[in-house]
Amino acid sequence: MRSTLLFNLLCSVLVFAQIAWSWPDFVDDIFQRDDSTSTGVSTTASDATGTATTGSNTDTGTATAKETGTTGTGTGTGTGTGTSTGTGTKTKTDTKTTSQVTSVDPRLPAGGASMTNPASTSTTYYKIGQNITFGWNYTSVEIKPTAVDVIASCSSNSATYTLAKNLSYSTSSVVWHTNDDNETATNPLLTAYYTLIIYEAGTSPTDVASAGKLGPATFSFGMYVTQSPTPLGQYVCVTCNAATSNMERQTLGFVFTMIAITVVSFTVFAGGVGIFS
């Protein structure tokens, strides 16, 4: 009887020991781990070309793990899907620059230039071969040109000499190297009167400017060529009215001689016939 009770007690201990030993696996088999499901919303924006995109993304995943004793191993798998849609608008602003047009009263006269070097109150004479500086101020110019041309014209040889081409409007002076032009020009400079003309580049010196624009400005001056001294007896003034040639002097001498002979002859003849008695 005692031995039977002892045997039953020993069997119970072994059964409880077996249950205690396999308890972690038993719990894991009954209560398996579940991974939580996460749902997220993402927003993506793109404005590089003036559009915006808004979308949603949903990730769903499951994972299982198993532990044995104090050492655990686990594997996990997951899948995710996402869609995105969006609409956007783009706004473009254009700016345009327009040039301002100067409005001028058509009743106003055309602009011009007033000489400052030399003064325009008197005629100035320059020696051919030297450098000549001309200076001026613009007057009554409402519509300023970009550039001007400066020329010198001589009516004696019908020649035109260019002093400056496309000269900036802000520059109001020019230097004429007469020696260079005299050596290279087709028509050499003469001792004569010249006309300086200042006018808007791209136009003609004879054009009539409208109100407020630069019209051709003119200035007269003289030029001369120096010569070696001439003896007084050989000098002939070609522009003097009182100058006479040798032929003219001989003719006048013959005329006066014939008049004297006629007067003397008539006096002798009259005295011989008693006209004066």
Automatic annotation (TrEMBL):
<feature type="compositionally biased region" description="Gly residues">
    <location>
        <begin position="71"/>
        <end position="85"/>
    </location>
</feature>
<dbReference type="InterPro" id="IPR055561">
    <property type="entry name" value="DUF7137"/>
</dbReference>
<feature type="domain" description="DUF7137">
    <location>
        <begin position="108"/>
        <end position="239"/>
    </location>
</feature>
<keyword id="KW-1133">Transmembrane helix</keyword>
<keyword id="KW-0732">Signal</keyword>
<keyword id="KW-0472">Membrane</keyword>
<feature type="region of interest" description="Disordered">
    <location>
        <begin position="37"/>
        <end position="116"/>
    </location>
</feature>
<feature type="transmembrane region" description="Helical">
    <location>
        <begin position="252"/>
        <end position="276"/>
    </location>
</feature>
<dbReference type="Pfam" id="PF23585">
    <property type="entry name" value="DUF7137"/>
</dbReference>
<feature type="compositionally biased region" description="Low complexity">
    <location>
        <begin position="37"/>
        <end position="70"/>
    </location>
</feature>
<feature type="signal peptide">
    <location>
        <begin position="1"/>
        <end position="22"/>
    </location>
</feature>
<protein>
    <recommendedName>
        <fullName>DUF7137 domain-containing protein</fullName>
    </recommendedName>
</protein>
<keyword id="KW-0812">Transmembrane</keyword>
